[in-house]
Write a structure and sequence with these properties.
- The chain has two domains: 117 residues, 3-Layer(aba) Sandwich (Rossmann fold); 175 residues, Rossmann fold (3-Layer(aba) Sandwich), CATH 3.40.50.
- It is globular.
- The chain is of the alpha/beta class and 299 residues long.
- The strands form two sheets. Strands 2-1-3-5-6-4 form a six-stranded mixed sheet, with helices on both faces. A six-stranded parallel sheet has the order 9-8-7-10-11-12, with helices on both faces.
- Helix 1 crosses helix 10, helix 1 packs antiparallel against helix 11 and helix 5 packs across helix 6.
């Protein structure tokens, strides 16, 4: 079997190193870098069993697939294509990785766990691997649903919001362009899911009320600096997941201030999202469990 990554630019990608670590180098994984999606797609059809897809090709990959997984239909984009006897099947491991993380923090919250999470050393492919099962909500740990604030509604934000909705969580969408967030809420509504939309002016209030904040904007918004100790909700669990791992908006100083105000608050950086996105995707590729511990060491 042979796998790869298409996108442009991708020379900086950690995917080959993660894949090699996950399977001890047993399968080839190559970068297919070209600004021409059709060229990359033809190379996939000719030489590869499966490919990861990154910007700017996720919507084009979605359009090429013969079979769409349920999460792809909900998100409207694909970042993983696999050859099957029935045709090319599309998945969205951005969605699957965030969903895996959300299930984990929901379980920890329900058990009252507040210590920093350590990634497990092994992982079994979820029901999503090679055939997505119907999504089932997480059982609430309280008499209300978990409240999720998704900041930024680009590709990663859309997948994150969809993952939270699929778990029965209350989701609020927020974006620098209100119109873009409104369109996403309408897309979700057509699929039977409801998400609220708020302006960035409401960031502080929404941050304070949310149990989980998923931050997808590639730069720090001014509203972050306006947060007070009370906004970190002292006394209850609060989880922050940020997509950007190259230049994160949540500085070490900000994270320290949050932890000092609320020892139950936890920040998860984009490398963990990348890790969970990778491990779910690689399991779909091969049908085998990659070594999550060795992949963690790469990061």
């Amino acid at each position: 079997m042979k796998f790869g990554l298409i996108g442009h630019p991708i020379a900086h990608s950690l995917s080959p190193a993660l894949f090699k670590a996950g399977y001890d180098g047993r399968y080839p994984y190559e970068l297919i870098e070209t600004p021409d999606f059709e060229e990359a797609y033809e190379r996939f059809l000719k030489d590869y069993d499966g490919i990861n897809v990154t910007a700017p090709f996720k919507e084009q990959a979605f359009a090429k697939a013969d079979i769409l997984s349920e999460e792809c239909m909900l998100v409207g984009a694909a970042n993983l294509l696999v050859k099957t006897p029935e045709g090319i099947k599309a998945f969205n491991s951005d969605f699957l990785g965030v969903r895996m993380w959300l299930q984990e923090v929901s379980l920890r919250s329900s058990e009252g766990a507040t210590s920093k999470r350590t990634p497990p050393t092994s992982w079994a492919p979820p029901p999503a691997a090679r055939g997505v099962a119907r999504f089932s909500p997480v059982t609430p740990s309280e008499d209300r649903k978990a409240r999720v604030l998704t900041v930024g509604t680009g590709g990663a934000g859309k997948a994150a919001a969809a993952a939270a909705l699929s778990l029965g969580m209350d989701v609020t969408l927020m974006n620098r362009s209100r119109e873009k967030a409104d369109r996403l809420a309408e897309d979700f509504s057509r699929n039977g899911y409801h998400a609220d939309v708020k302006d960035l002016d409401s960031f502080r209030d929404c941050f304070r009320k949310a149990d989980i904040i998923i931050y997808n904007i590639p730069a720090a918004i001014p509203q972050l600096e306006g947060l007070t100790d009370d906004d970190f909700a002292p006394g209850r669990a609060k989880y922050v997941l940020e997509a950007n791992y190259r230049d994160p908006s949540f500085s070490p100083g900000f994270i320290s201030r949050m932890k000092e105000a609320n020892p139950h608050a936890e920040y998860t950086g984009g490398r963990t999202w990348l890790l969970y996105q990778a491990v779910t995707g690689y399991g779909i590729f091969t049908g085998e469990s990659p070594d999550l511990g060795k992949m963690s060491d790469v990061l």
